[in-house]
Amino acid sequence: MLTLFDLPSARFERPDILRKVSDASRQLAEFKGVATSIPNQDILINALGLQEAKDSSAIENIVTTHDGNGRTGRILNVLYLVKQGLLDTPILYLSRHIVRTKASYYALLQSVRDQDTWEDWVLYMLSAVEHSARAGVGTVKAIKQALLDVKKRIREQHPRIYSQDLVNNLFKHPYTQIDYLQRDLDISRITATKYLNALTDSGLLAKLHIGRNNYYINIALNAVLNGTALTEQR
Question: Cα separation of 58 and 98, whole Å?
């Protein structure tokens, strides 16, 4: 079976494909610009990466072709966009759109295999990039707003413990632990415990006890990642 790179480029120089390339590029440019508004890019890489892992698992058991594992392909897609300068960091994830359009995804994959209909597949993937970038804009804006809100509340309610390192720790993952805070802020275990319990009492974190460990959930960030604090742009 031929791969996309084995085909002549002139085959894809169709008006509908070129229009979709333009639409996807324009949306990527907006996403790239919005993403730079959060100085600590690790926050986006970690937060959006978790979304990708969750959504990717919903399709991973089916997507295997001759083109390799589906997850590998989706990673290569976003790395290619970074290589081409269309993104600064690998934070565009396609699995959520694919999960929502599973029937088309599977049908088009099979059609490429059976009928060599690469043009339809390219249109689908360009549409996936466009929709994912648009959704990413909304997610980044929501994460930024949540971060600013939490930062403001800590400053006002807990001025003695406020620091940018503390805020970064809380948003590096949807949850933190005493050990994480102790390491990132270079403080004692007693002090880290005191900080996290104070933030829990203020309603910024939710404390969850699993086994021998306590997990401190970032309520605002989890609301964004679960979609309850985000109205997706369509």
Answer: 10
- Distance separating alpha carbons of residues 52 and 30, to the nearest angstrom: 20
| Terminal Cα distance for the chain, rounded | 36
Distance in angstroms (rounded) separating the CA atoms of residues 58 and 95: 9
Measured distance CA(66)–CA(114) in Å, rounded: 12
Instruction: Check if the beta carbon of residue 78 is closer than 8 Å to that of residue 92.
Output: yes
Asked if residue 218 and residue 155 are part of one domain, the reply reads yes
Q: How many residues are given for the chain?
A: 234
What residue type is assigned to position 18 of the chain? L
Residue-wise pLDDT for 14-29, tens only, equals: 999 999 999 999 999 9
Our CA dihedral for 72, 75, 76, 79, rounded to 10 degrees, sits at: -160
* CATH number (domain holding residue 163): 1.10.10.10
Indicate the pairing of strand 205-210 with strand 213-218.
antiparallel
Rounded Cα distance between 210 and 221, Å, is: 20
Helix axes 118-157, 102-115, angle to 10 degrees: 150
DSSP letter assigned to residue 10: G
For 95-109, how does the pLDDT look when each residue is reduced to its tens digit (9 = 90+)?
889 888 999 999 999
C-alpha–C-alpha distance, residues 99 and 138, integer Å? 18
Q: Which tokens go with 74?
A: 């989706």
Mean residue pLDDT of the chain comes to: 86
pTM above 0.85, yes or no: no
pLDDT of 66: 33
- Domain assignment present for residue 232? The answer is no
Whether 3 is covered by a domain: the verdict is no
